[in-house]
Amino acid sequence: MEEFREKILKFLSLGESVQIVAPPGFGKSRFGRSLSGLLLDTNLLQTPDDLMIAVKSSPQQKIIIIDSLDRILNENYKPFFSYLKGLRDAHKYQLAYVFLTDKLINTQYLNILNDLYQLISEHVEHIPTLKEKEYDTFAFSPTKLQLKEITNLTGGIPALVKICMLAMRDKIPLEPEKNIKLKAQLEEMVSISFSEPAYSNSKLVTDYLKNRQTRQLTASEQRMLDLLLNHKNEIVNKEDICKEVYPDVKNYEGISDHSIDQLVHRLREKVKDKYEILTIRGRGIRLTATPS
């Protein structure tokens, strides 16, 4: 991480701005604070006027850090963005901006950012994951095997590394339902950046996503899953499906094979990481565990 920080500081020393992309869990706010500039937290300064006043009243005119820029990308902030561009023009190569974002700011926001977009796209960098030697152990002495497990569970994502290290030190379970901090962190991560590629290397995240997808079933999908689980490895026929999945329907003849096929297709997609659902033509549906 220090190598990454030095790279960013080099850009800033040349008066060049940089967009730093980091989804939740990567500690972008902490990284922003480490750069020793004026930090504008858009979660605290919630109006354009608040942000403008903070800039004008600060003696810091070399590095200005805007945390969570993506939170304020709307028409109301256009005057503030114009002000930032004008300020930079007046102090060219003496003032640099750091734009901290969850996701890459691309040209779709050009009409809001206008000329400021040139500075936002001047340099684009992604906060890297941690290497094992960079882990903060919090007065814990993990074994090599534990370090390997932490890396496998977290993928080097800073927030997860911290939670795992403390959990191992304090002998707290690393299961979301039994670890409140872990569940809250995972929920924040997947809620904001559901398909973030950097999360794919963390077993904690991938497992949580699988379970989360399973939980988010419609009422009819849940009834279908419950029925199939109660008859696991057995073929469930259409009549039984109609009785259990559509309890309010009196005339089962009105339930088409196509409707059931569509329901099965949706359910299959949502639980494919845990279960295999097969359609046995002319006979019914069968659920089995997905081969590991």
Automatic annotation (TrEMBL):
Any one GO MF annotation of this record: DNA binding
Gene Ontology biological process terms in this record: phosphorelay signal transduction system; regulation of DNA-templated transcription
Keywords for this protein: DNA-binding
Name of the protein: OmpR/PhoB-type domain-containing protein
Ranges for domain OmpR/PhoB-type: 187-289
Organism per entry: Candidatus Woesebacteria bacterium RIFCSPHIGHO2_01_FULL_39_28
DNA-binding region: 187-289
Pfam families: Trans_reg_C (PF00486)
InterPro entries (UniProt xref): OmpR/PhoB-type_DNA-bd (IPR001867), P-loop_NTPase (IPR027417), Sig_transdc_resp-reg_C-effctor (IPR016032), WH-like_DNA-bd_sf (IPR036388)
